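Bug: token stream looks shifted between consecutive jobs. Job 1:
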Amino acid sequence: MSIDVNNESDFEVNELEISAQAQFVLRSLHINPAAELSVLLVDEVAMTVLHEKFMDEPGPTDVLSFPMDELRAGTPDRVSEEGVLGDVVLCPAVAQRQGEQAGHSMEVELRLLLTHGILHLLGHDHAEPEEHKVMFGLQAQLLAQWEGERNARGLA
């Protein structure tokens, strides 16, 4: 999988771990190995511009997803189509505040937001109660599996 991580924020982040987590999530969802994903980390000013332009909402947000080829998850028997998943844009400054409020680190919050953003690229949503249940259940499952993988790799 081609995962491009570009940190344009003032925060230090582990770009290799972000890439590894994204690869893990995509493999877990049976995404074609030839698929492409871009992860961009931006400051609050850039995120505010994107949030207002594309969502018509004021101020910065934590994560935005911009799907390209509208790929969907595959199955254990058949991977997804080939293509460009799109872009996940993360804002570490917002993630840091949310992590503090939730009682965990910015890194933990960024892992949650990355998974959330990838699920949006794959067509998941949480506007309706049933969609919310499915998406957040899958998100929790993937994060728990990734934590196990991180521990196995000695990243924790």
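Job 2, same session, no restart:
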Amino acid sequence: MKDNINSLDELNKGTCMGIDAILFILDKVEDKNLKKLLEKDYHKYKSITESVKKIYPKYNKDKDPHETSALTKAMTFYGIEIQTLTDKSDSKIAELLLQGTNMGIIEGIKLLNNKEISKEVKDLIQEFVNMQENTIEYLKKYL
């Protein structure tokens, strides 16, 4: 039970990071196709977050899933601002997003390697990892 809770908490934090990164960077994107793809990813992250919130009470009735802290959000925002201060190209934006997406994949796979989580939780994490792997493929085109 505890592994399911921890996995859902980590998954939710990962989706929150993706949502925040897209919101922080979207106004800097000039390419219309890249912007559409990021908006699509935003909705996928939101969908996974909603799924986490839906099943979380099965494993922990007393709390809501963990989200990213205000400090983490601020660090993400300022990191993006600093990294795009002198270079706001689509290539630079894709590079930043690739770095974060790769971290999400790594964390997701670590969670999947936990043999103690339920199939329901594992399937949701797999959906997250698959989504992130697809994101990597289209972001490569913008480097």
